[in-house]
């Protein structure tokens, strides 16, 4: 079998995973007669790691309040995370911030992630700081790079052109809100030829957290959402279209799609977040509302298995007000933390 194919066995839970480091294909395959596990007891498959909270763009909508005073994680602390991640069988890390590629040790971070620990890194950038050396390292070590679609959009186009020129798998991350959904339809879906060389556009459901939290920005107009999902389901695009799991209740309601291709919230089940301050959470959006587990005091696997917040989020996903809904097995009730972001008719 190719060295680029990773197979992790989980005999105690009667399943295994297959991950292609080159293509990003991932599969969770249960043994015959057994259901897919609700969560991985061995540890997360994916870690979302903020390696810095430094950013010179300082977007108003940033939920991390990132700015020029933000702190960087030390290389030593980052490597301590990777050591434990590898022991738990983590397959991928998503590096974020702040603007991660402007971390002073970013190239070294990518190199040790892939070469030393055999974990595939990807990252999301605001488009700034993409030097030739950063682009070369991204090409050599990363699975993909995503560019956040924030104003001014000229920077988005410039960043995408740089990444594609280097042959890097490139995605766009766009936050869907009541303000931005019309723009998404007009600029990304109806002008799709502009983006024909990218790999995918990933739509992220707006969450009312951070310095600019505003519940008026929630996607609370079901007619607009119906039109949005109708466009996606009835037209062909030169790129893939994806969603964060925070959109899953809308996918279950508005898109006719095989449930095997839909992943409900993975927080505390198959994924976790670690801040640049070494605090571990089930989800990155919990950082402003929850204390987080201090990894200077507790091992990651112990947090994953035994921390109260991790247990609670799994319990909330396993059983909630949506248990009797026909879509429950697809979306598990949507977001267990910010119920107001859920997109199904029950939400309204």
What does this molecule look like?
The protein has about 350 residues and is an alpha/beta fold. The chain folds into 2 domains: about 1-35; about 40-345, Aldolase class I (TIM Barrel), CATH 3.20.20.70. It has helices at about 75-90, 105-115, 130-140, 155-165, 180-190, 220-235, 250-255, 300-305, 310-320, 330, and strands at about 5-10, 15-20, 25-30, 45-50, 90-95, 120-125, 145-150, 170-175, 200-205, 240-245, 270-275, 280, 295. A hairpin with a 4-residue loop joins β1 and β2 (about 15-20). α2 (about 105-115) packs parallel to α3. It is globular and about 45 Å long.
List keywords for this structure.
single chain, 348 residues, alpha/beta, TIM Barrel, 2 domains, ten-stranded mixed sheet, three-stranded antiparallel sheet, 10 helices, 13 strands
């Amino acid at each position: 079998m190719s060295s680029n194919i990773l197979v992790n066995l989980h005999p105690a839970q009667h399943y295994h995973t297959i991950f292609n480091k080159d293509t990003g294909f991932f599969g969770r395959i249960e043994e015959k007669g057994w259901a897919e596990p609700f969560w991985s007891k061995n540890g997360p498959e994916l870690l979302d790691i903020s390696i810095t909270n430094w950013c010179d763009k300082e977007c108003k909508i940033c939920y991390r309040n990132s700015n020029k005073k933000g702190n960087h994680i030390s290389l030593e602390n980052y490597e301590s995370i990777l050591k434990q991640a590898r022991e738990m069988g983590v397959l991928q890390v998503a590096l974020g911030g702040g603007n991660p590629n402007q971390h002073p040790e970013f190239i070294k971070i990518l190199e040790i992630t892939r070469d030393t620990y055999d974990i595939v890194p990807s990252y999301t950038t605001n488009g700034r700081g993409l030097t030739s050396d950063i682009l070369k390292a991204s090409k050599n070590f990363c699975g993909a790079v995503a560019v956040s679609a924030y104003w001014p959009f000229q920077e988005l186009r410039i960043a995408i052109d740089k990444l594609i020129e280097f042959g890097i798998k490139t995605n766009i991350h766009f936050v869907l809100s009541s303000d931005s959904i019309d723009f998404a339809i007009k600029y990304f879906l109806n002008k799709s030829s502009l983006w024909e060389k990218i790999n995918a556009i990933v739509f992220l459901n707006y969450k009312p957290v951070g310095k600019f939290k505003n519940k008026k920005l929630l996607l609370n107009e079901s007619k607009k959402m119906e039109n949005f999902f109708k466009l996606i389901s009835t037209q062909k695009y030169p790129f893939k279209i994806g969603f964060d799991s925070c959109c899953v209740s809308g996918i279950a309601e508005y898109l006719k799609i095989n449930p095997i291709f839909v992943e409900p919230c993975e927080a505390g089940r198959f994924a976790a977040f670690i801040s640049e301050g070494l605090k571990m959470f089930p989800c990155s959006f919990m950082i402003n509302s929850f204390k987080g587990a201090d990894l200077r005091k507790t091992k990651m696997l112990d947090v994953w298995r035994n921390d109260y917040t991790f247990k609670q989020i799994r319990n909330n996903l396993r059983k909630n007000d949506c248990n009797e809904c026909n879509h429950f097995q697809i979306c598990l009730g949507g977001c267990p933390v910010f119920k107001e972001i859920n997109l199904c008719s029950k939400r309204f």
